[in-house]
């Protein structure tokens, strides 16, 4: 099978669109269409079906896509291994962090890694946790940091290291709860909470924990972005239960106040996952070595970095 034809098919399969694939590959649409037809004739199976302007993969197309992803992942691994033999300080790392860790933890890791390994190329994506898991299963990443229960890790993946975040209640200094030593958990049904959208993993975790205490949430309103939630709270509009990683700077500056909540235990796990059957390159191993102590110390590492940055 011609690997260039397979590469063109994979781009079409990933984008589910012939025209867009042609644009990204700098080829004409007829050339891409002809390549797909050629592959179909070669394997004696229909690979795609047109659905309006888009395409859908047949079962054979999905099977070929999966094997193509594995094949080209192995090709990249081979190229990285050969490159590292020429230049041990070089290489590439493909990684993804979930949105909270990507905004508040990743910059610290990248800063330290770049100081030690300036020649390594990093390809970084900020995705939600299910997207990271799928990208790992599709051979698109070396590793990813996800918010997940380690007990439900897919069998193809393994957990390299893990730490815990903490979800805490924060309010503005002017809020009516700001001077409380402890807030009764039952007070969270007063319609003061600004929440993430219903599809949010964090929101689901909050609702499940409050349900355990017999508390039903009546939200003030919902937002789809952690930074928007934080800014709204800082402006004095309501309260929020939010990642402790995300508010260290504001807590140190006194722009937000942490209000302890009785009997509330919200500690989502952050797990570094990778494929169990994929060899990590020296560059990827070096990145993990930089990441490991930061994950181990979690909030303390972020607090220290925040303090140094604020001096």
Question: What would your notes on this structure say?
Answer:
Strand 1 and strand 2 form a beta hairpin. Helix 1 packs across helix 3, helix 1 crosses helix 4 and helix 2 crosses helix 3. This protein has three domains: 58 residues, Winged helix-like DNA-binding domain superfamily/Winged helix DNA-binding domain (Arc Repressor Mutant, subunit A, Orthogonal Bundle), CATH 1.10.10.10; 119 residues, D-Maltodextrin-Binding Protein, domain 2, CATH 3.40.190; 92 residues, Periplasmic binding protein-like II (D-Maltodextrin-Binding Protein, domain 2, 3-Layer(aba) Sandwich), CATH 3.40.190. It has twelve helices and twelve strands. The mean pLDDT is 87. The protein has a five-stranded mixed sheet with strand order 4-3-5-12-6, with helices on both faces. A three-stranded antiparallel sheet has the order 10-7-11, with helices on one face. The protein is 47% helix and 18% strand. It has 311 residues and is an alpha/beta fold. InterPro entries: LysR_HTH_N, LysR_subst-bd, WH-like_DNA-bd_sf, WH_DNA-bd_sf. This is Transcriptional regulator, LysR family. Keywords: Coiled coil, DNA-binding, Transcription, Transcription regulation. GO terms for molecular function: DNA-binding transcription factor activity; transcription cis-regulatory region binding. Pfam families: HTH_1, LysR_substrate.
């Amino acid at each position: 099978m011609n690997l260039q034809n397979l590469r063109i098919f994979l781009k079409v399969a990933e984008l589910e669109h012939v025209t867009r694939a042609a644009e990204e590959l700098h080829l004409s649409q007829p050339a891409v269409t002809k390549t797909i037809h050629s592959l179909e004739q070669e394997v004696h199976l229909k690979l795609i079906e047109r659905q309006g302007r888009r395409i859908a993969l047949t079962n054979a197309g999905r099977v070929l896509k999966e094997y193509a992803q594995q094949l080209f992942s192995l090709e990249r691994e081979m190229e990285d291994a050969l490159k590292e033999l020429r230049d041990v300080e070089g290489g590439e790392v493909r990684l993804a962090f979930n949105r909270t860790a990507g905004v508040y933890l990743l910059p610290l890791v990248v800063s330290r890694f770049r100081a030690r390994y300036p020649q390594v190329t990093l390809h970084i994506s900020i995705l939600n946790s299910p997207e990271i898991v799928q990208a790992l299963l599709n051979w698109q990443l070396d590793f990813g940091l996800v918010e997940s229960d380690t007990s439900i890790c897919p069998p193809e993946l393994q957990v390299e290291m893990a730490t815990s975040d903490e979800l805490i209640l924060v309010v503005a200094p002017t809020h009516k709860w700001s001077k409380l030593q402890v807030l009764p958990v039952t007070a969270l049904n007063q319609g003061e909470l600004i929440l993430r959208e219903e599809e949010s993993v964090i929101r689901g975790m909050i609702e499940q924990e409050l349900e355990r205490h017999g508390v039903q949430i009546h939200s003030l309103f919902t937002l789809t972005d952690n930074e928007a939630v934080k800014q709204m709270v800082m402006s004095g509009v309501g309260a929020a239960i939010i990642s402790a990683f995300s508010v260290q700077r504001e807590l140190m500056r006194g722009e937000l106040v942490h209000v302890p909540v009785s009997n509330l235990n919200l500690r989502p796990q952050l797990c570094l996952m990778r494929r169990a059957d994929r060899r990590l390159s020296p560059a990827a191993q070096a990145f993990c070595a930089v990441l490991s102590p930061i994950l181990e110390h979690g909030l303390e590492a972020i607090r220290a970095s925040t303090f140094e940055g604020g001096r």
